[in-house]
Every structure is written in structure tokens, then in C-alpha cells.
Design a protein that fits this description.
With 244 residues, the chain is of the alpha/beta class. Helix 2 links the parallel strand 1 and strand 2. Helix 8 packs antiparallel against helix 9 and helix 9 packs across helix 10. The two termini are 37 Å apart.
Length: 244
């Protein structure tokens, strides 16, 4: 009831025409509560909206219901394609097949999808990054968000990183989209940044172009021009709604 009242206020005072719910797992609520909310939302707010949720919460009936209520976009965490990193390191105990199925359900309802991805986890390598790329190619999200892992204070993953000796006791704070602070022998910080820079290109473009994308991973005047050209090529011929 409080959410509906706040939405009415925002819509009427600020002429809001799109709603984003920041609940990280919107569809985890029980079906009865969800349907009651959606009925009230459609009747009293009636604006298009976007949500975040986890793949485990995506069911045919729930997606049908939120589509009817005005949902136009759903963001879902893919996170990592490698089973060990996803299950043992991230503690996300879900099979790749279930993630692919979740995206298929959403895509079949013509709701725009976005995928969250995390690079640079402990034990990450170039091959595990490409497992994440392959999972994205299977899920076919309209857009991708790609972040680089940072071991925050108080988390179990920070302790793991300290135990492995891949961070020091007082690591610097960095932007999680710009660099990694992990010192891992199997993949360099520079390679991770390059893979993040070209991640969407690897996901969207035909594999025959992978050698060109590889060249565009590293910075440089000519490589930057190639990177820009590949983005343009992708936007024109493969994806009208790409987000880098």
C-alpha cells in the first residue's frame, strides 16, 4: 500500500512515465502477494516498469502476470559461466540450463532482458571468462552489464582473497568497472580490463570476427579505432539496442 501511494505521488507531482523497482529479487515474493500488488498497480498506477530478479524466481505464470501489468524490462544475474566459480565461489547454486531457460521465458514474452555479469573472481582465467560469454550468447539478453569483482570488507570472498594471497591487507578502493585489485598468476589485470572492454562484442558478433575483437582488447590508437568500428558494426547489423 505504501509503495502504491509513493508511486501515485511521484507520477502526479513529477510526471513520471517509467518506474524502476530496485528490489534485487522482485519475483521472490509469494504468488498471492505478487498478484495482489500487480492488480493494484495496473489499476491505480498503470505505468510501464522495470525490475531486477534472480533466474530461480522466473516462472511462466509470474512473467505472464508482470507483462500484463506493464513490465517492459527485466535484469537477471548471469554472473559467471563457470560452474565452480558460480557455485563454489559466488554461492549461486543454479545450473546453466536453468539460467538459459529463465531468459527464454522472458524473451518469449517479448520483455527486454539485461544480464548482470561479474569478471575477475578468484580463480578466474581467460577460459572461464569465455564460459561466461558463451552463457550470455545462449541466453541472448538485449544488453549486458559487466562489472569487475571487488572484495569488500566484511565479506567471505575478501577472506578467501586474503588466504590465497591475491590481495594485501589494505587494498586500495577502485571503481568496479575500471580495474581489478586481485593479483592472479593465470590472468593479468590488463587482460581482464581488455575482456571487459570487448565483452559485449564477443557476446553479440559472429565468432568468425573473434580474431579482430582480440586485437581490439588492448588500447592503442589503431586498436581504439577498430574497437569503435566493431561497436558501430554491431549496432548497425546485429543489435539496435546495445549498451556498452
Amino acid at each position: 500500500e505504501r509503495s502504491i501511494e509513493e508511486l501515485k505521488h511521484a507520477r502526479d507531482k513529477f510526471n513520471v512515465n517509467l518506474v524502476k523497482f530496485w528490489d534485487e529479487t522482485f519475483l521472490v515474493m509469494k504468488s498471492e502477494r505478487l498478484y495482489n500488488f500487480l492488480d493494484t498497480y495496473k489499476r491505480e498506477i498503470n505505468l510501464p516498469f522495470m525490475i531486477n530478479t534472480r533466474a530461480e524466481t522466473i516462472k511462466e505464470d509470474k512473467i505472464s502476470a508482470i507483462k500484463d501489468a506493464g513490465c517492459v524490462a527485466i535484469s537477471v544475474g548471469i554472473e559467471a559461466g563457470n560452474d565452480i566459480i558460480r557455485k563454489k565461489i559466488m554461492n549461486r547454486n543454479i545450473e546453466k540450463e536453468a539460467i538459459v531457460k529463465a531468459f527464454k521465458i522472458i524473451n518469449n514474452h517479448n520483455i527486454r532482458t539485461s544480464a548482470f555479469n561479474m569478471l575477475g573472481m578468484p580463480f578466474e582465467s581467460r577460459s572461464t571468462v569465455f564460459e561466461t560469454i558463451e552463457l550470455n550468447r545462449s541466453c541472448k539478453p538485449a544488453t549486458q552489464t559487466i562489472n569487475i569483482f571487488y572484495p569488500y570488507e566484511g565479506t567471505l570472498l575478501r577472506k578467501i582473497c586474503l588466504d590465497l594471497g591475491i590481495i594485501d591487507n589494505d587494498p586500495k578502493m577502485v571503481d568496479f568497472q575500471s580495474e581489478s585489485i586481485l593479483e592472479m598468476p593465470q590472468i593479468s589485470k590488463e587482460e581482464l580490463i581488455g575482456l571487459r572492454r570487448t565483452f559485449v562484442l564477443y557476446c553479440k558478433l559472429p565468432k568468425v570476427l573473434y580474431p579482430l575483437i582480440y586485437i581490439a582488447e588492448k588500447p592503442g590508437i589503431l586498436r581504439n579505432h577498430l574497437h569503435s568500428f566493431l561497436i558501430w558494426f554491431m549496432q548497425i547489423f546485429f543489435d539496435k539496442q546495445v549498451s556498452i
